[in-house]
Amino acid sequence: MEKLANFINGNFCQPKSKQYLDVFEPATGEVYSKVPNSNADDITTAFQAAKDAFPDWSELPIKARSQYLNNIADLLESRQSDFAHYESKDTGKPVSLAETVDIPRAIANFRFFAEYGPTFKFDSELNSTQSENKVLHAPLGVVGCISPWNLPLYLFTWKIAPAMIAGNTVLAKPSEITPYTAYKLGEICQDANLPDGVLNIIHGQGASVGDVLINHNGVKAISFTGGTATGKTIAQRTASSFKKLSLEMGGKNPAIIFSDCDYNKMLETVVRSSFSNQGQICLSSSRILIQSKIFDQFKSDFVQKASDLIVGDPEDRKSNLGAISFKKHFEKILSYIELAKKEGGNILCGGKAVNLNGRCKKGWFIEPTIIEGLDNNCKTNQEEIFGPVVSLIPFQGETDAIQMANESDYGLSATIWTENKERAARVSNQVEAGVIWVNCWLIRDLRTPFGGMKQSGVGREGGSEALRFFTEPKNICTSNA
Ligand code: NAD
User: Fold this and answer.
1) Quick one: pLDDT at residue 481?
2) Closest CA to 201 of 152, 138, 139
3) Which of 259, 296, 374, 450 has a Cα at 20 to 30 A from 214?
4) Largest CA distance in the chain
């Protein structure tokens, strides 16, 4: 069985404790590799490597750092197909999705920050008759990046690329549930001759090695993506150190569908925004708010489309949905379907685990599930399920649509479907979400701020927001007198 390794100071190494955790293939339910269960000793070694690498890396001209990122992107692109297969096996997502979304986006993250970094004003001047002011955005030093299991390489690289281009050195902890592509990225860094210690990848459990990472005095900032409960723990555990924090957390995203929308485009996109990656995307639509006039038509068409989706082996290119990424999560999603029934929900389609034959017979598959008849305030409609489960809720007009959209502790994203531009503008302004898509979903211009309001996030990623996060502004003021 393959044993993964930490990537520290440019080398692959075993965890100091020699302890490993099982990594499962969700499609088969079988253990297929072992990942280091690292501890404080591994963080100490990785921190020293990152600290030693910082002076040279931060002093390199940004064009040189940019070249390293481009080289990493090129090498990743040359192995795109292998990485898509690794990601699919590790997460249970269809390989076709990993090929078209996850790995291209990971490549784009490196390319984007390689190009964008040199355009960012790391130094600027603000002069007046009284004084000359230099404003510097200096790298922080050693920073920590912690990422989740649902879009493993996509989100891992979304953090490390801006951290590195800004001149920081990195301790990165991928999810212990889906560590494989982050592990393989170490090989790419070696092939790209990335200087030793610039990127260190330490595997293991959040509550143990993750906790050591966030509490390390020398780590200047933590960029975290994951669940809201974990984000709260990190905020509490680091409060007294005043560490810089960027927290990207959960969501319960509304799709708001007005009767004047482009119906076919909306229907096709809402199917994708509900069920892509088995609904395990923080930006997935989970509360589908539909104007009453078209509720029945939408319900019937949406149920038909969802029932046509093929749940199957992630390796099979015909599969629209693959497996749920781990057993506990599979059980959690099924328990939410039971809760929905108890709360009075009517299951319009799906609602059960899928039993496949052959190599996937012990895998964790769930049917696309659509529920109606639940109040917006019930638990099913308020708590993040993070699976292929959506709830249909009718509304009369703009005012109650906005009210329901905002009746949530979360505020990550929303989609609005209408051909009326004024209405789109009014609703977009009033919906409390960090990302609003009008007549589309998941289009990302990487220059734009990304993140959530309320319990969905603190801070923003992307473009200049990410570079500001990974630098510290300093004002050097010289009097003209
Ligand atoms: P999680 O919070 O369980 O874990 C995320 C990461 O944090 C993992 O690497 C984990 O090991 C680590 N971790 C856990 N406990 C820790 C601790 N005490 N200290 C330090 N690190 C710790 O989240 P998950 O289950 O991996 O991911 C799913 C969640 O992520 C969902 O809620 C989803 O909405 C959210 N998510 C948000 C975004 C976004 O951009 N807002 C994107 C993707 C996923």
Assistant:
1) 87
2) 152
3) 450
4) 82
The three-state secondary structure class of 52 is helix
Q: Tell me the residue range of the domain where 398 lies.
A: 253-445
Name the strand (E) or helix (H) holding 239.
none
What pLDDT is recorded for position 371? Answer: 98
459 lines ligand 1 (CB under 6 A): no
Pick from 410, 232, 47: nearest CA to 224:
232
**Residue ranges in the chain whose pLDDT is less than 70:** none
| C-beta of 276 in contact with ligand 1 (< 6 A) | no
Active site residues per annotation: 248, 282
Domain tally for the chain?
2
Substitution candidate for ligand 1 out of 208, 225, 469 with most atoms within 8 A of CB: 225
Are 464 and 425 in the same domain?
no
Query: Residue 395 is part of a domain; what is its CATH number?
Result: 3.40.309.10
pLDDT at 389: 98
Q: Is 279 in the pocket of ligand 1 (CB under 6 A)?
A: no
pLDDT value of position 277: 98
